[in-house]
Every structure is written in C-alpha cells, then in structure tokens.
Amino acid sequence: MERISDKDLEIVIKQLKRGVSNVLSVCHRCSYGFPTVILSYPIRDGVPFPTIHYLTCPYLTKEISRLEEKGLIAEFEKRIKSDEALRKAYENAHKEVINKRLSLLSKDDERWVGLLSVVGTGGIRDFTAVKCLHLHVADYLAGINNPVGKQVYESLNQKECSDALCSRF
Fold this sequence. Notes:
By secondary structure, the chain is of the alpha+beta class.
C-alpha cells in the first residue's frame, strides 16, 4: 500500500477543514485526480477508530447529506429489515470492513482485535442500522461490496463537481 503523499494530505485537510492523524492512503480519486476517499488506520491517538474509509470529497459529502435530510437512512433501515437478500449483503459488507480493518493492525495494536472485530463500518454494532450514508458510500468507493453505498452513489445524478473544486485548495 502506497502511503499518502504530502500534497494529498494537504488537500484532505482542506477538504475536511480539520487536521487528520491516522490517514494511510487514498482509496479513491475523482476524475480530476483529487482524493475522494481515504483509508485510515483503525487506531487514532491510542484508541480504536473503527472508520477506516472516510469520504473527503466536499461535493459528495454535500450531496449525500441532502439525501440524509430527505430521510434516506430510515428508508434503508426499513428495507434492510424487510429484505433478506439486502440484509445479508449489507451484513457481508460489514464483515468485509472488519476483515480489512483487522488486516491493517500492527502487532503493537493487536490488543484491540476483540473490540474491532465486533463492530462494523463506522463502529456500527447492529448490522441492520445505517448510522450515516457517507460511511457506506466511502466503503463502496474503496472497493467494499456495500449495497447501501452502491445504491446511494448510483442514485446521484452527478458523481462529482463540475469545476474541480479541490484545485482551489
């Protein structure tokens, strides 16, 4: 895995409008070449940090927030509880994230395996809950077979900004 470059890290900090301390690499980029999803180490400042894929693209973050405001989280939770195939696929996505997260741990951090192996993406314990759509889109764009992330991303009419917003950073 290639470590994040200083330039990418600078862009991510500006995208998120805050510092970051546990970024490992860029998992996905937009067509302009800017980071859209980062991979984070599962321990931050000595404590477990279960979110390994983080959506950084300001455009996608804004568009997905609009979907959340329309009640899409509740809709997905209802569908997950009533659709067995969706529920199994969603549960498998959580397991895929768990396996990837555990594979990132160093020997020094193996004491956290127990805790980090029972929570899914974003620290979700109930694999029928959808905490936030950004998590799932980030997982999907990072290569996780996440049905919620896929459906949310595919529902967007426009997948990225039209003006290379991050070039201004």
